[in-house]
Amino acid sequence: MSNPYTELSKIIEQRGAALNGYNLEVAKVLSIKPLTIRIGEVDISVNLNVDPVMVMELDPDSINTEETELKEALKSILNTIKINTGDYVVVQRVMDNFYILSKVVGA
Predict the structure, then answer these.
(1) For residue 49, what are the β-bridge partners?
(2) CA 81 from chain center: how many Å?
(3) Nearest to residue 36, comparing CAs of 50, 24, 48?
């Protein structure tokens, strides 16, 4: 007769594994309009969710201000957040939806 606690532990592991979500993935941005990413060899352009700031169309140079340092800070922030074709992003899959969490760069 086997140990019932060992059997229970195995059942818990099996059921828990079935409920685990997908791992985070690194994807390459293929285009912005329409937004398309590539994970491995698969191109994805449907069910993508992204923070609007990441794809915002804003040209800091078009802002009329004498505060050049403020404009440079805005450019720096946008460059850090905004995604462009060729950038890499971290993606979390939840069922059939893909959530772009952040832009990533090599260290």
Answers:
(1) 99
(2) 11
(3) 48
The reported pTM is 0.74
- CATH (domain of 58): 2.40.50.140
Interior/surface letters 16-30, b for 16+ CB within 10 angstroms, e for the rest: eeeeeeeeeeebebe
Residue 74: pLDDT band (50, 70, 90) is confident
- Whether residue 35 contacts residue 55, with contact meaning beta carbons closer than 8 Å, is answered with yes
The residue behind tokens 């050049």 is: 68
CA dihedral sign of residues 73, 26, 54, 58: positive
Tell me which residue range forms the domain holding 80. Answer: 22-104
Give 11-27 as a DSSP string: HHHHHHHHH--PPPEEE
- Measured CA to CA, the distance from residue 18 to residue 40 in angstroms comes to 23
In a domain, 7, yes or no: no
